[in-house]
Amino acid sequence: MSVRKSAKSSKPAGRKVQEHAASRSKVARPLPESMVTGKASAAKAAAGDEPVFAYIATLPEPQRSIVEHVDALAARTLPGLQRAIKWGMAYYGVGDGWCFCCGGFAGHVKLMFVNGVALQPVPPVTPVAMGKDTRGVELGSVADIDEQRIASWMRQVAAVPGVGGKRR
Fold this sequence. Notes:
The protein is α+β, with helices and mostly antiparallel strands. The chain has helices spanning 14-23, 33-37, 49-58, 63-77, 147-158; strands at 46-47, 82-86, 89-94, 97-105, 108-113, 135-139. It contains five helices and six strands, in the order H-H-E-H-H-E-E-E-E-E-H. The chain has a six-stranded antiparallel beta sheet with strand order 1-2-3-4-5-6.
């Protein structure tokens, strides 16, 4: 993951996420076309915290709150967390590989783990077109987030190679 050279990406994001959440508008917006069709957003690929926060800001409620919560959990759980937008979704990694992604869709948020088949317990959702080893969960509300289980999966997946990463 040589594209991530920003010093900002290695800073803890807890306060940034809170500031970002406080500054967002509470005005209801229609769903972006990509969320209705089941495709990822049209967000441009970019590395770093700011593109991910900008992507999150484009999501309507409740997807925005869910993704903000997952992002904050990731920041608390994984030291050295790095973020990027890839394939229209927020990707998260540590070290030299991407570990999981999170994206908003109509009615839910997908949280998918690269190498998810190696996690215990294996997450229940097998996504379409994301690789045969990817597994995850679909979250319909913030209440659906099992912080202990998801944090455990985040730690487990960070300990194995991510996409393009080397074995640690």
